[in-house]
Design a protein that fits this description.
Number of helices: 16
CATH class of the largest domain: Mainly Beta
Strand content: 15-25%
Helix content: 40-55%
Number of domains: 4
Shape: elongated
């Protein structure tokens, strides 16, 4: 009988060591295979224990003094394989349950509980240590450590609460009540890491994060609503102002069109009509770009429609100042004011702008009217005074042009056809300027040709071509510039 027990104990040790070796050979990349190995070796060791009539849940001194070490190691190996099997089941359950990565915190907590329980069981059932006395002593030590690690434990339990509540997941963009905002990039026992819009990492202790109000901008999606307040001098009827502001949003390229942006009249007094613009962007990172574009379009559409932006309520404007502004605005022709506001023509002198504006011819297109087909070479430069023009490529809208934008320079300067079809969305008013007015300017101002070529290359790039976009833009700009110079060089010789 003792010889039979010795054989079983030796077999237990062999199975335990073999299980550890095979478990390590499986690697962490194969959790399912690891779990199968753990179950098989644990089941085999359990069968051997039963055959040897060894009870792992009871402290039994070995029958022979010579086999004490083998007996102890066999029971320890059985407990180790039990803990690994339980931990394997926990990890597989978390994966199959579809838990996010931050559930690693719960997994680590459960694994720690399993290992602690196994360690106490080994001490009690293998070495015969009185666990009751040990727990009483460790309780006093735990109280001392708890007081010393109060803040750390607060962070740990706050992290557990945040993980169980799941107010956010890794990758979500959150906004805190103290103004801090960013994307969650990591979450551990003590802290949560946010990547801000300034590309900095903010480390927040979990106890602090749990006390702050939290807005999850990424749920249910990352579409973010922006509200922009505008004050307009009431020189036009409110419903006209409402329509112009709606046109502003319709001409914006960096905001979401579904759901559609909206405009609301929220107040009126003797000095201003108070308007609020509501629009959404696809990500919090797009807020600055979209807000800047909308503000630029508000200015351009107000200029083209004769609206004036009202002064803030705190600003007092005297009658003389008001009259001076009105006289100044009425002193210049509409075409000249529009040309002066376009950055491309900033290289021209006031006299050159006056001459250019005098040659401009006003044209109007009805809503839905086709202005140019794809590939058409227009015979004049067209500067948009009012309305929205849609740029289309293969029956798909790629961008929209607003007041202050212009097109047609490729056709009348270098004989190049339009890369997009152009269609009026609203009633569109443009100023046409012919080649004859530009010929002397391009000879005197070569930088004007460069700016026109850059604008045309940028508009052609809106078709959504892939690849090295910057290199394509530079090559296209150089080609267009050479073409423009060649045409006007021949024009000068002729």
């Amino acid at each position: 009988m003792p010889q039979e027990i010795v054989s079983f104990v030796i077999l237990l040790n062999v199975l335990g060591v073999a299980g550890i070796v095979v478990w390590h050979l499986q690697g962490r990349s194969r959790p399912n295979a690891r779990l199968i190995v753990q179950i098989l070796f644990f089941a085999a060791m359990t069968i051997v224990l039963i055959l040897a009539r060894i009870v792992p849940f009871r402290f039994d001194p070995p029958h022979l003094e010579s086999m004490s070490a083998l007996f102890v190691s066999a029971k320890i190996l059985w407990w180790v394989h039990l803990s690994w099997a339980v931990v394997g089941f926990l990890r597989i359950y978390i994966v199959l349950d579809g838990r996010p990565r931050e559930a690693r915190l719960i997994q680590d907590l459960l694994v720690a509980v399993v290992y602690l329980g196994v360690a106490l069981s080994v001490m009690a059932f293998v070495f015969g240590v009185p666990i009751g006395t040990l727990l009483a002593t460790s309780g006093v030590i735990a109280i001392i450590l708890g007081l010393a690690l109060q803040n750390t434990l607060g962070d740990v339990f706050s992290g557990i609460a945040l993980t169980l509540g799941r107010p956010y997941v890794i990758g979500d963009w959150i906004l805190l009540s103290d103004g801090t905002e960013g994307r969650v990039v990591a979450s551990d026992w003590r802290s949560t890491h946010l990547l801000t819009a300034a590309h900095n990492i903010v480390v927040l202790p979990n106890s602090v994060l749990a006390k702050l109000g939290l807005t999850n901008i990424s749920q249910p999606d990352e579409n973010h609503l922006i509200t922009l307040s505008i004050r307009i001098v009431p020189t036009r009827m409110p419903h006209v102002i409402l329509g112009i502001m709606q046109t502003v949003l319709d001409s914006c390229n960096s905001i979401i069109k579904d759901p559609p942006p909206a405009v609301s009249l929220v107040g009126i007094d003797a000095s201003a009509v108070h308007v609020e613009l509501y629009f959404q962007v696809t990500s919090p990172l797009q807020r600055g770009v979209a807000r800047s574009e909308v503000i630029d379009l508000v200015y351009r559409h107000c200029k083209s429609s004769g609206l004036q932006l009202a002064m803030p309520l705190s600003k007092v404007i005297t009658a003389n100042e008001d009259s001076a502004q009105n006289l100044s605005a009425a002193g210049a022709a509409p075409a000249q004011c529009l040309i002066e506001a376009i950055p491309v023509f900033s290289v021209l002198t006031a006299d050159e702008i006056t001459v250019l504006a005098a040659s401009a011819v006003k044209r109007t297109f009805s809503p839905g009217e086709e202005i140019a087909k794809e590939g058409d070479a227009l015979s004049s430069l067209m500067i948009i005074k009012a309305g929205i023009v849609s740029m289309r490529k293969d029956d798909r809208e790629t961008a929209r042009l607003a007041p202050g934008d212009f097109f047609g320079e490729g056709g009348f300067l270098a004989g190049i056809g339009e890369s997009h079809a152009l269609r009026a969305i609203t009633r569109v008013t443009v100023y046409e300027i012919g080649k004859e007015a530009f010929a002397p300017l391009l000879h005197e101002r070569p930088e004007l040709a460069e700016d026109l070529a850059a604008n045309l290359a940028h508009r052609e790039a809106l078709s959504g071509n892939v690849g090295n976009h910057a290199m394509q833009h530079d090559h296209r700009r150089f080609y267009l510039l050479q073409a423009i110079r060649a045409v006007f060089r021949n024009h000068a010789h002729g």
